[in-house]
Design goal:
155 residues, 21% helix, alpha+beta, 2 helices, single chain, two-stranded antiparallel ribbon, binds zinc ion, four-stranded antiparallel sheet, 17% strand
């Protein structure tokens, strides 16, 4: 285990620093602020789970990626996976008498299309946790739910 593989992906934020998210329950999209939105937010511990502002259902931290973001991660991981496989093959054949492993020329993998994050949606803040703004679709009307605690509120 002397090799380290690193995967670098940059997921774009909109002009206000918000990251697009998709709810695993209702499938609708909203945005949350990437990292603490302000000093007060920095002083609060992260909740165990975030709640969808649109349906109020909680889900684990890592279950909010949009299909485009999942694809971006997978494409970014692919060259690293191939390299790991080749390293493994090489060391396997090195131990096998009479065989040599010809390492394939590094495949040129196309870089993933950079995602573009449009500046859509409107910022809302919940009355109970107003340091954690979210963005919801402009056409959304009615009840919203606090990202942090899941409490219902109206805007
Ligand atoms: Zn939802
Ligand atoms: Zn709240």
């Amino acid at each position: 285990m002397d090799d380290e593989y690193t995967i670098q992906v940059s997921v774009p934020l909109d002009a206000d620093g918000f990251l697009r998210r998709e709810c695993p329950h209702c499938g609708r999209q909203f945005k949350w602020h990437n990292g603490p939105a302000n000093e007060e937010a920095e002083n609060h511990a992260r909740p165990a789970a975030y709640s969808c502002p649109l349906c109020g259902q909680p889900a684990a931290d890592d279950s909010w990626n949009t299909p485009e973001q999942v694809e971006l991660f997978e494409r970014a991981a692919m060259p690293v996976v191939l390299e790991a496989v080749q390293d493994e093959l090489e060391s396997m054949f090195r131990r096998t008498k009479g065989f040599t492993y010809q390492r394939g020329r590094d495949e040129v993998t196309e870089p993933a299309e950079p995602l573009v994050e449009p500046d859509d949606m409107v910022i809302v803040t919940s009355p109970c946790h107003d340091f954690e703004p979210v963005k919801v679709p402009e056409d959304h009307t009615g009840t919203l739910y606090c990202l942090i605690c899941g409490s219902a509120f109206a805007v």
